[in-house]
Every structure is written in C-alpha cells, then in structure tokens.
C-alpha cells in the first residue's frame, strides 16, 4: 500500500540546494503528491515541533525554521515514512557523513541543528503533520502518478 509522509527542505538548504534535493527525491522513486513553499510563523514552528518543546535546542530550532520559507512536501510511496528517513540519513551530519555520505544530510547538513531536511518519524506523526501543513486533504484521492 502507498504510504504518505510529510517532508520539508529547511530554509537555508532550500536557497542553496533545492534542485539537487528535488532530483534526489525523484530518483528515489517518491511521488510528490503535494508541494508548497511556506514561511512558518513562530507560532506554527512551535506547534510543528511541539514534541521537542523544553529541549535545550528548542528556541534555536524555532528561529532556524522561521528564518525563510521551507519547501513542504507530501511524499508518497510504499513505506514512505521509513524510506524518506533513510534518504535523509541520520540527524547528526557527522554521523551521516560516516554512515551514509550520499544521504541528503550526508551531502547538505551543516550541523545537528542546521540539518537540511525534515521528515515525520512515524505514520501517526505523518498524518498529523500533513494535516497541520496542508489542511484536511483526502490522501486517498491523491493521484500517485508523476
Ligand atoms: P528534525 O528531524 O527536523 O527534528 C528535530 C530537529 O531538531 C532536528 O531535525 C534538528 O534540526 C534539531 N535538533 C535535534 N537534535 C538537536 C541537537 N542536539 N542540537 C541542536 N538541534 C537539534
């Protein structure tokens, strides 16, 4: 069955590497079901990352995500949540460069904070974040052709 995940290209990386990342997404066989550029407000970024509230890097994370537009995407594929996480690579680029240098974070992340891309961690989060960013769309009605 086709699964959906919420993926984001973070602001700095969107400016610098948009086309290379979109190409890598296409090459990995994802369908790009929805796409929009969006500059998150502080309130939205805080809500988007509410699972991380209280962590020492939370304020920095919110600042980083608000500093320009993100590219928000719904990626669709069998096993999309896990497949997108493996295309991103580990959160920490030092680790990504060692274990998966061809992953998006291996290629483009600058630090554990400025780590280029985001993806939902499980299917429940994926549905929640898709709804938060794209509203009440009917995922079953989406066309999965490229
Ligand atoms: P992301 O996968 O979008 O989910 C949470 C984000 O918090 C993560 O990517 C990083 O941008 C950031 N992050 C996670 N851990 C740390 C950390 N130890 N220090 C700074 N930022 C972090």
Automatic annotation (TrEMBL):
<feature type="domain" description="Nucleoside diphosphate kinase-like">
    <location>
        <begin position="2"/>
        <end position="141"/>
    </location>
</feature>
<feature type="binding site">
    <location>
        <position position="115"/>
    </location>
    <ligand>
        <name>ATP</name>
    </ligand>
</feature>
<protein>
    <recommendedName>
        <fullName>Nucleoside diphosphate kinase-like domain-containing protein</fullName>
    </recommendedName>
</protein>
<feature type="binding site">
    <location>
        <position position="91"/>
    </location>
    <ligand>
        <name>ATP</name>
    </ligand>
</feature>
<feature type="binding site">
    <location>
        <position position="105"/>
    </location>
    <ligand>
        <name>ATP</name>
    </ligand>
</feature>
<feature type="binding site">
    <location>
        <position position="85"/>
    </location>
    <ligand>
        <name>ATP</name>
    </ligand>
</feature>
<feature type="binding site">
    <location>
        <position position="57"/>
    </location>
    <ligand>
        <name>ATP</name>
    </ligand>
</feature>
<comment type="similarity">
    <text>Belongs to the NDK family.</text>
</comment>
<feature type="binding site">
    <location>
        <position position="10"/>
    </location>
    <ligand>
        <name>ATP</name>
    </ligand>
</feature>
<feature type="active site" description="Pros-phosphohistidine intermediate">
    <location>
        <position position="118"/>
    </location>
</feature>
